[in-house]
DNA sequence: TGTATCGGTTCATATATTGAACCATTGGTT
DNA sequence: AACCAATGGTTCAATATATGAACCGATACA
């Protein structure tokens, strides 16, 4: 591990819950000698990445981040971070992968990618996703702001015989979704489409959108569903990271519960 | 210079105007060997501070900044209270308004806003402001901690023919700044830029940063200068209040003196 | 075809990093 | 008031780690 890497690793110990860290505490957290940690912190302070609170002598994140975060946002639009995970998702599942973003109370299609594996594939041809009738929508209802549910309950147009059209049924499905960490919709919007969806979070750590796989319904098997779930987890982690967020512990726990039996899944980078 | 410091210094080369940098170009900018630069960039990439654009192979700032900037702002709220006063300042003057914060002995760019009034406008494209060559820097020297002057006097690189490069001239300018309550710099850093700057104070009632207006030099008239001064006062009071501080009486008195007499408002000759 | 870039890799050299032991202060306990 | 256990910060010999010239393969260009 390079000296620079050790230095950078120090920054990861500063969080919302522990925004100020003294030298000794930082040593313990980093598991490194005090002199070493001190020099590393000096380098960080020099560059504006940490600053010392004059009152407490403890260190906190510095002002340089604001400027650099601004440049990052200007450089990389949100869509750019979605391309690679979606590609992997579509490849691994052989189905259509897509991402939607929540803006206000509407889920907008942001990007989609079709796998070339099969000659039949699902094409997403809507700009916005109905909340009650799609896996993405259920995901938003389960993990997004609560006002979405009030709005969705008001009008639930029927698209297919499978569409959920009663508030009770909707709430039941949302409960299952919360417990699982994924949403699922079989033919609720378009007849032959089976969809699975996981939430994405941004730098506010709030629900920001969904990543989904839309399958031709006749191809769905338990094995494929499992593969899709596993890769949805990876894609969600990857996109969430790229958008500057972190997956809430409660979601990770739900995923772990749904995927028991598989080895630990590494985040996508 | 430590290896970590060299690594961190690489990040300062990424700006809005140069958001993506290839390995070779980064070597030249950093003035360092390619292998060294490569390893440093690797360490940065590992930590999420840069990422490689797969298409161009060039590097750009990474997603880690979004999270860290958010934590910084939650720890030390600075940016939140700056938006509104800057907006008013930019609107009222028709020029570019910006805020810098002092951390240690360095002035970091915090936020900026360009007025849409004119088709030509000043773009702030630096992360840190040189103390001797900018209005913000002069402001820090005049109203900030005394050790800044020792530091600034040591190295005063010349950026333009107008740059102050002798300690005597610098001290003279600082004296004028103290007396006026504003700093002023005409083309000292970039040739066609005329800048005016007022200090900001935080909850310790010590100098915490600057609020400035950067004008296209050819547009500066005594009338515009007066408007800028008046609105700088308002912006400084507003931001100082928001940061939990209060403007020292001595500064208020200096402002009052500057804004009654007309001669003090004349631009630098 | 030859040349000049580019991103990335290797390896001997020597320079910069390391941590135990050491201060000087501070704040709480007896 | 003396004591103790923290804290932030410093020193120096030992050595682990960073360094850069030279190299590689790929690409672009003329």
Beta-strand percentage range of chain A: 15-25%
The tally of beta strands of chain A, per DSSP, is 8
The protein's oligomeric status is homodimer
- CATH architecture identity of the largest domain in chain A: 2-Layer Sandwich
- Name the structural class of chain A: alpha+beta
Query: Tally the helices of chain A: what do you get?
Result: 10
CATH class value of the largest domain in chain A? Alpha Beta
Quote the CATH topology of the largest domain in chain A: Beta-Lactamase
**Mean residue pLDDT of chain A:** 88
**Rounded radius of gyration of chain A (Å):** 22 Å
Q: What is the rounded distance between the termini of chain A?
A: 19 Å
Helix content of chain A: 40-55%
What is this entry, summarized?
By secondary structure, chain A is an alpha+beta fold. Chain A has ten helices and eight strands. In chain A, the strands form two sheets. A five-stranded antiparallel beta sheet of chain A has the order 5-4-8-7-6, sandwiched between helices. A three-stranded antiparallel beta sheet of chain A has the order 1-3-2.
């Amino acid at each position: 591990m390079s000296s620079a890497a050790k230095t950078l690793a120090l920054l990861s110990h500063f969080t919302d819950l522990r925004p100020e860290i003294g030298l000794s505490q930082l040593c313990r957290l980093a598991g490194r000698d005090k002199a070493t940690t001190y020099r590393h912190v000096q380098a960080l302070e020099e560059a504006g990445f940490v600053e010392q609170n004059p009152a407490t002598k403890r260190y906190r994140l510095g002002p340089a981040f604001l400027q650099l975060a601004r440049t990052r946002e200007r450089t990389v639009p949100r869509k750019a971070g979605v391309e690679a995970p979606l590609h992997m998702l579509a490849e691994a599942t052989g189905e259509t992968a897509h991402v939607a973003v929540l803006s206000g109370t509407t889920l907008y299609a942001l990007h989609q990618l079709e796998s070339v594996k099969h000659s039949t594939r699902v094409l997403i041809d809507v700009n916005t996703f109905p909340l009650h009738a799609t896996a993405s929508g259920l995901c938003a209802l389960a993990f997004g702001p609560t006002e979405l549910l009030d709005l969705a309950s008001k009008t639930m147009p029927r698209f297919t015989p499978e569409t959920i059209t009663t508030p009770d049924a909707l709430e039941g499905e949302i409960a299952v979704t919360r417990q699982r960490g994924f949403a699922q919709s079989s033919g609720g919007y378009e007849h032959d489409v089976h969809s699975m969806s996981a939430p994405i979070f941004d730098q506010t750590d709030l629900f920001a959108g969904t990543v989904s796989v839309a399958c031709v319904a006749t191809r769905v098997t338990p094995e494929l569903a499992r593969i899709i779930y596993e890769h949805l987890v990876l894609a969600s982690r990857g996109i969430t990271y790229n958008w500057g967020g972190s997956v809430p512990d409660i979601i990770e726990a739900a995923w772990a519960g749904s995927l028991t039996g598989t080895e630990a899944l590494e985040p996508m980078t």
